[in-house]
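Researcher: Let's continue the batch. This sequence belongs to NAD-binding protein, and it's 245 residues. Same format as the previous ones, please.
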Amino acid sequence: MPSKKILLFGYGHHGKYIAKGLLEDGYVLKVAEQNETFYQNALEDGFKESVLIDMSKDEELVALDPESYDKLVCVMDDEHYNVFITLSLTSLFPDLYIVAISDSIHTTGKLKLAGAKKVIDLYEVSANRIHNILKRPITTQLMKDFIMSKEGISFMEMEIPEGSFLNGRKLEEVNFSSYDVLLVGMVDMELGRGFEFVTAGHEHQLDSGDIIVCMGEMEKLRIFKKIIGRKEPDRGDQDKKEHTS
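Model: Same format as before. Here are the structure tokens for NAD-binding protein:
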């Protein structure tokens, strides 16, 4: 059985790890980059078929012969490029199977409109699971279907509003489980707009304007989004603060 061919756009922070994993699993992989440094990194890492192109030029995308690949994977570090490339490729070749990554709900929507067959949200998955989706699509889909069948388990972005009881509090002081939601990650507006997963021991002070990403039943998420607009927390959260003080 011939190896599946993948054309991967991007060899930055996300792309290099995904590329190496796919290569180890026997995929025939070609890397396309527009950044000279990332292109050289790909060559040094053994991807001799890598190409340096201007992705804004349709003729250079056409020259890659994208229809000869089983999947096209857009993993540029700049999500705007992922949208642009997806849109360009779809307009040129409507039947392509394009997988793209996103780090926000807004970008996910744009990628789907642009024609991506599958969009992988970075606040939901790690680079390792992106690799798994390509390697074991049936198993991964079963896992996804199982999660989604559990009473509408989903993710929601929430901006901490002015006057919220969360403003000025440490992460460890907030008992998210008392609201039946799980904090997955956040965007710290003081440090920049990049998303980061919240792991055990993560020290951070929440501020108004920060964006948090929570997981839970959709109705619980909606309720919690309303609650964080209050000046005072519910009793369950106060209890934790009293016990830890």
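Researcher: Any comment?
Model: The chain has nine helices and ten strands.
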